Amino acid sequence: MFDVVGIGANSVDYVYRLPDFPKPDSSKAKLRIAHHAISCGGQTATTMCTCAAMGLRSRYLGNTGSDDNGRLMRDELSRRGVDITHTGVRDVANAFAVILLDDAQGERVVLWDRESRLDLAAGDIDPGVIGDARLLHVDDVDAEASIRAASIAREAGIPITSDIERVSDRTEELIAAVTIPIFAEHVLEPLTGERDFERALRAIHRRRVRLKPDTTYEDGLVCVTLGARGAMLLDGDRLYHAPAFPVAVSDTTGAGDVFRGAFIAALLRGETPGDILRFANAAAAISCTRLGAINGVPTLAETQALATKHTKTY
Predict the structure, then answer these.
(1) Residues with Cβ < 8 Å from 37, sequence gap 6 or more?
(2) Rounded distance, CA 68 to CA 76, Å?
(3) pTM here?
(4) How many other β-carbons are positioned within 10 Å of the β-carbon of residue 27?
(5) What CATH number was assigned to the domain covering residues 2-8+42-93+119-307?
């Protein structure tokens, strides 16, 4: 049995560090590239690599291309201990992204492309693969496949974490299907109309309880990542907020995906909500000090060392 099966996106990232962000009709219209690199990433692929680094048996389900980038992606997953037995290969170019990094601030802009033939459909989901896991993780890139996999996992009593980064016509259905929704901060206001994160999390929780009166402990957890402000987790009626660990930021690419992988590891260890947040924040913070998404994944020992430092949950 695998500890975690992840369904969702992978990407080969072309990372360019710039002294500033470009601005048309100014001295910033032409900028010399300070540094460039090719790095593997993608929401679920990065999360699965993080889970593997935290000592979990991890499996990735998603489609890769038949080109050099697809081979690079599959090789990177395997090298990091992620099972790719059920990773597909389609006769198209792999998904990729061009990432522009502000060298001074560490923030970034992501430009991406993905062939539609890389999409994962509901019919591609093997119930036996989902049932062979302690936990399922999905993102919102292939929503149809994620919802189908989550439905299978629910019937089997398997908890489901998620990476919800956008609002689409399937988002509400995906939120209802998973047991632990984890949101990017910019998603909550469009979903709930609430600018305050606590009120937004409580609105999501009330909506889920109305939809599923037989709420389990996992269904009581609703989380949002807040970047440099840390993360917030609602457990039933109790709210937890863990500030971010102060670090020298190099690249924030993949930090939220690393957060989710560490969150999963701490959850499966049976840690308390506050400790889960602190551990996940520590992993995300370390990843921000390194260039690239999967390249930024920390070890378990590194994460534990930072998580025991002074930053507290309240």
Answers:
(1) 15, 291, 292
(2) 12
(3) 0.94
(4) 8
(5) 3.40.1190.20
